Structures are given as C-alpha cells and as structure tokens.
Amino acid sequence: MPAVGFTGEKLPIELTVESPLASRATLEILAEGRSLGQSPIELQPGANALQVTGSILTPGAISVTGVLRAGELGELRFEQALALRRPRALYLTQDPPGLDSHLMGVLRSAQYDVVSGADLRRVSFDDYQLVILDNYDQEALPEPAKAALERFVQRGGGILVIGGEHNIYVDKKGRPADPLERALPATVAPPRSPEGTAVILIVDKSSSMEGRKMELARLAAIGVVENLRPIDYVGILIFDNSHQWAVPLRRAEDKTMIKRLIAGITPDGGTQIAPALAESYRRMATATGAYKHIVLLTDGISEEGDSLSVAKDAAEKRVTISTVGLGQDVNRTYLEKVAAAAKGRSYFLTDPSGLEQILIKDVMEHTGSTTVEKTLTLKVTEKAELFRDLALEQAPQLKGYVRFDAKRDASTLLKVPGEANRDDPLLVRWQYGLGRAAVFTSDAKARWAESWIGWSGFDKFWANILRDLLPHAQSLEATLTHDPVSGSLVAEYRLAPHVAVPAELPTLYALGPGGFQRPVKVERAGAGYYRATIPIGTRQGLFRVRPLAESAAFPETGVYIPEMEMSHFGNNPQLLKQIAAFTGGLFNPNPRDVFSTGGRSVPSALNLWPGLLALALLLNLAEVAWRKLKRS
Fold first, then answer.
1. Rg for the chain (alpha carbons), in Å?
2. Is pLDDT at 182 greater than 60 in this prediction?
C-alpha cells in the first residue's frame, strides 16, 4: 500500500499470502476501524498475490487495517498508516457563470478543493495538483503563466484542457511552440472546411481615424487576410459619409494584391455606419461559403438607421456580425445591440494596439475554422484503466467539438468521426516530464455535451480523467518512522527545490494512543531537509505528526507501530526441514502420517501386580457375596 495518497483516490492494496491448501477466504479493509468493504478470495496452495482497491474521504494520517478470514485456516491481519490529503485544483474558464455547474459538481464529489478565477499574475501553480482550462483561450494567457504551467507539469502536476469556442487556431507562421503548447499532447488544428468561408471587414476611414488608429486598422485587416485560405472569400468595405469597396468580395488567393489595396486606405470625411452595414450584408447574402461573417470597425458615433433590422435579417440568414469600437467616442449601446442581434460579439478598445489580435480571433471564431457542430458518436481507440467499469459504447452522442491535432507521441484514447472519412481526436493524453496532460476536444456543459450531463457515466468519466492526472511523483517526501532502539519516532521532510519553505518553521504536534500528545521541534538538517525526533518509549499503535495550521511543506504524516509478535511473521522452511531430518521426523506431513510408526518399536516394561491385586480383591468379595446368597 502506498504511504501517501489523495482523498477519494482508489488506492491499490497488494498482499502476498502463503496458504497450505486451497480455501475460500474473505478480505476486509478497514480505515480507523470502519469497514471500507469486503472481497471474496479464492486461495490456492502456495503463494497468492492479492490486490484490492480502497477509497478514503478523510484527509490526514489514517490507520488502515486488513483482515483475511479463511475459515479453518484462521485469520490474518495487517495494519499500516496512510497519509492522505485533499487534491487542490485551479479552474480557469471564459464561460459565463453557471455553465460549469455539472463539472464543478464532479469536482466537489471527488473531494477536490477548487479555486476559480485566480489572478494569473500572482498565482503559484505549485500550490495545486491540477490545473483545468475549460473553454479558455490559451493565447490570452500571459507568457510568464505559460512558462510556469510548463514547469508545473514537468515537476509532476496535471493539466486538463476542455474544448469550446474560445479554443482558436492561430497561425504561428513558423514560430516555435510556446511553453504551454509544448506541455500539451494536442494543439488546435488549422481550418479544414472544404467549402471555405466568407469574411467582410467594414473599416471606418473617417478623419478621426487618422494617424495611429488607421495604421493599426490596416495592419489588423492584413492580419486577417494572412490567416485566410485561398478557398476563403474576403472583402474590405470602407466608409466615411459614403462607402466604397476597397477590396470587392473575392477569393483570398492573391494576398499580395489584397494587402496592397488595404495599405492604400487613407482617412477622410465623417461617419455614416448604417448604409455601409446594409451594403456589406447585401453583398454577403449572395456569397458562397460554409460560414459568413462581417466585422464592423469604427471609432465614431453615427445614426442607427435600419442597422438593427439588418442585423436581425443577417442572423436569420446565418450571417454573423461583430462590432469593434475604438476609443471613448463610440455609441457603445448601439454597437452591442447590432452584435447581439446578429449573434456576433462586441469589443471595445481604448488602446488600439490590441486590435489585430482581436480581429483575427473574432474572425477565426465565427468562420468555423476550429469548431465542428454536428451529431457525433465517440469511438474507443485505446483501452485504458480509466475506462474501467464505464460503458462508453452506451454513451450518448455529442453535438460538437473543436478540431485538434494529436502529437505523435501522445495516446489518443477516444476519437470522433471527422471530415473526409478521417477521425479527429476526442481525448488525448501523454506524460510530460513527471506530470501528465490531457485534452478533451468537446465540452462538459449543456452545449455539445447536452446529452452527456444526464448520462449515468458522466460523473465517473470525468472523475477518472481527473484522478488520472493527479501527481504520481511527490513534490516533497514526509515520512514518520520508528526507531525501536531509542524508543523514538523520527519525522523527516525532504522538499523539492521549487517548494517554498515558510520564513518561520510551523509548530508541529505528535499525537498517539492513550492521550499521547507532545510538541515537536523541527530542525534544518540540510538543504531542503528537515528532521525531528519524538521519544515515545514502548508505546504502540497509530502515531501522527501534524502542523497546528495547514502547511504545504510540512504536511501531516503518520506511522503504525504494531505489537512485537505482529511485526515478525512467516517461517523458515529450510530450518524446519533440518529439525525434522535431525530428529527423524517429517516436514509438513499429512495428518494420517503423524501417528504412523513406520514399522519401528520401542521396548518398555509394565507393572501388572497392582491390577492383579485389585482383581483378586474383587473376586474374593464376589465369592463371599455369592456364598451368603446361596445359604439364604
């Protein structure tokens, strides 16, 4: 049995039992005297390797007892101390509040301490065992946070990425992968729609856009064109008091010419949005493509006109419209209403330097380049331990996913049917350094997984995935051992280099049976090594050493000291054979052979006179009695 573990985790308990004969037995596991369950066992003659699992929900140092009952063979017991702690998970999402209620319910039931919405500029990932990115735009993570996440996984932490519309493909143009991409077993795939998409950018070129705004608007439009494929369509409509096509809607094949036309846009005039919006929708309505998306970019205020009715008509024709407001002088309410009516998004930037990233992300999100929405039946491609007792063939269908590409060395456990008779990964995992990382390309909420959240296997599926990602290597080693020579307990703490040591060492207490309690003084014995000695004399039972306040560097640990006769077990077959041979006896005989003489005899003398004398007296008394009866 492991010496340390997490609450709620299925802990393996392995036994080797020698049996003289075949027998049926029952193995019961108890924690602090309370039964965790029983398992029937079929013992065979000789050594038997037994394995069961147990789950304990209480953190701290726990006494675990095993009892093997084998009828006429008797009863066998063992006892051990197990140090348990609750796993901590950092949960990050860009979904509105409440959409993650089903997944959060799984985390609570699985005994996780969950922290949501942490400030990534101040968070220490070493305080957690698991990080979950649920529908989270990885490009929005600060570069220092990405590097810290990679180190977190390399040192033994777990990371889970769950799909959603915020997982956007960004063409890195030959740049090396960032630290987080290196740690993940799969990355967002580039577009693969055979029909292509259509994008129209409506760019405000009024005089207020002169200078840096116009320059950044041109760069942002060029960035969007760079991320389109030759089969996609792109158009640039510019407006002031009137509107005109800088780039009429056309295929994005000759990107050099399109970028040259964009570079020639110069600011002038006033701001009239409604006519430009109507013109772009009129042209988009006749365009071809699997997805159609319009982006309106402005820094001014204009009359609304018929913009809302245009936006509603666009939504009905599956044309989405997003709006981007630059600076403070924009009609925020108007732009929000247009975007909401056309099922797009609205963005407001006081600093135009982030415009290119916003435009590229919005276009990728609304042109179907990363998401696939259709009814899907999963395929199990690799049988894994985490699927045990899960009837995945009976799992409901999913309604969508994000296209990811699995890396060559990763294990793709589940797939879904993709395009052109090619399957796409659904669940991918791998080992990275000492830790594990996994990507689930669909979601865990009532959008694509709407049928899953009512499935009986939903909780178990996610609980198994989360448990599989928990650390298999400890960031520190805390042990409590017994020194029988000195009658003392020895507490040792070995910390990994990245584990921060408190400025003041915490107050520790040793607790044991019979009300034993004693303060413990910890002393530094080397680099990252701390030690304490606690005299206990001849006491026996479960002992715990725990901090007065929770400490990541000095967690609770324990040891069980059994009675002396229980600490020595087993036999020495060679010695027993020698004794039997030396005395002329048998080793491990059958019961019938125990009383067999084997043809041997031993001379002996027996005194018969006491018996004969008693018989003579009895016969004499009998004769006297017979004569008296005869005379009468």
1. 39
2. yes
Q: What is the predicted pLDDT for the residue at 368?
A: 56
The predicted pLDDT at position 475 comes to 55
Q: In whole angstroms, what is the distance from residue 553 CA to residue 476 CA?
A: 7
Q: What is the pLDDT of residue 166?
A: 79
Q: Which two tokens mark 174?
A: 């030959």
Interhelix angle for 101-109 vs 458-468, to 10°? Answer: 60
Order of all β-strands in the sheet with 346-349:
243-251, 233-239, 197-204, 291-298, 319-326, 346-349
pLDDT of 462 over the 90 cut:
yes
Nearest-5° Cα angle at 580, 574 to 581: 90
Residue 434 — φ and ψ, nearest 5°? Answer: -90, -10
Mean pLDDT across 138-148: 88
Question: Quick check: 359 and 223 in contact, CB under 8 A?
Answer: yes
Question: With bands split at pLDDT 50, 70 and 90, how would you rate the model's confidence at 473?
Answer: low
Domains, the chain, in order of start with CATH, read 4-82 (2.60.40.10), 88-189+372-468 (3.40.50.880), 197-369 (3.40.50.410), 476-565 (2.60.40.10)
Q: How far is CA 408 from CA 56, 498, 519, in A?
A: 37, 30, 54
What's the pLDDT score for residue 275? 92
Phi, psi of 556 (to 5 degrees): -65, 140
Q: How many CB atoms neighbour CB 590 within 10 A?
A: 8
Specify whether the CB–CB gap between 480 and 559 falls below 8 A: yes
H/E segment holding residue 616: helix 609-631
Q: Residue 245 has what pLDDT?
A: 94
Element (H, E) at 610: helix 609-631
Cβ pair 325, 339 in contact under 8 A: no
Total Cβ atoms within 10 A of residue 99: 18
E-assigned strand segments in 184-306:
186-188, 197-204, 233-239, 243-251, 291-298
Pairing between β-strand 435-440 and β-strand 158-162 as defined by DSSP bridges = parallel
Query: What is the distance between the alpha carbons of residues 154 and 185, in angstroms, rounded to a whole number?
Result: 13
d(Cα 185, Cα 439) in Å, to the nearest integer? 7
Q: Could you tell me if 176 and 187 are in contact, meaning their C-beta atoms sit under 8 angstroms apart? A: no
pLDDT at res. 472:
64
Q: Which residue has the tokens 């204009």?
A: 302
Tell me the CA distances in angstroms from 118 to 104, 115, 121, 249, 542, one per residue in order.
16, 7, 9, 44, 39
d(CA 9, CA 412): 24
Of residues 8, 218, 253, the one with CA closest to residue 106:
8
* Residue 29 scores a pLDDT above 70: yes
Say how far apart CA 490 and CA 483 lie, in whole Å. 7
Cβ proximity of 438 and 465 under 8 Å: yes
333 and 306 Cβ atoms separated by less than 8 Å: no
pLDDT digits (tens, 9 = 90+) for 575-608: 888 888 888 788 888 777 777 766 666 677 778 8
Crossing angle (nearest 10°) for helices 307-316 and 332-341: 20
